[in-house]
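Appendix B, record 7
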Amino acid sequence: RTVTGVQTCALPICALQDRDYSLTLEALKDYQYAELFAGNQDSRGSISVGHFVVSKPQIHVAGFELAKLLGHESDAKFHLAEIASCVEATHQLPKSSLRAIHLVALHKRLDQFQQAMTVAAEVNWADSSWIEYVAPCIYEFSANPDEALHQFEQLQVNENNANAIAARAHFYAEIPKYRAALPRLYQQVVERHPKSVEGRLRALDIIGLMGDPGRLKAEAKKMMVLLRTDTSYWGRDDALRYLAGECSYDVALAAASHSILRRGMVRYARGLECLASGRIDEAREAFRHCVETGAFWLYEYDWSRAYLAQMSRDPNWPSWTEKKPAAE
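Structure tokens (predicted):
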């Protein structure tokens, strides 16, 4: 029997995609089998010691998210206990951004915010987009805007990291004296990363926070042109077509129906459009649906969680934008 690292990590994702908990159990069996031979395999994709250490938390994070979605309380508790048991071994890995995002994911699910931030502050994120696995955690768990901004500024990033600029905008939006800087932050991404699909896409969040639906639509149209020149950035077209007004929400959802990844992006795009338009009840529903896809490896998933936390703390959030009734 051959168990590869790809197989071990893919099964929990398939379980979330199909809402099939039996696939999670199969992944656990494969992991337990691989555990017997960790570090003593050939080079054809079998699990090494390093992969062995990170595979277990991936399985249990996915299992935890699926168990919650299915309402399996006892299974969720089991996975949470296993997540806690993974922390020490993961801490033993060499310090890196990869180690950091795994530990942030573990500590976050254990409600250990400060531990997550300590790990995140230990590495230099430089130009890595993975900073967006950390920033939403701060936005979700830190209720004080000034403290949240301070926490974010403890992270080591390059000044023109597009994902970090987009993330910073969230913290600036919460503080009146910084809010006027949002257009400048968006323009910084455009000027520094004119052809970056990743950066330009994530910067659309800034326009959503500005409460400018017309500009959001116009910039999404520009993004559609850029997207067509970068076929490597698959999966974003359904969401962008919706934001650009090229298709309805229902059409975009139907096109994304086969993938929780694409569906999560469309749900988030809907939330962002509603946020920009001041239709907060619809935005809340869309962000909730994004979280319910279970696609926890999406930045959009983490930001959806964070937005929902803000809405829970303040029913009038975002307080700086005009609210409107739901669209007919």
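Remarks on this record: The chain is about 70% helix and 0% strand. Strands lie at 124-126, 156-157.
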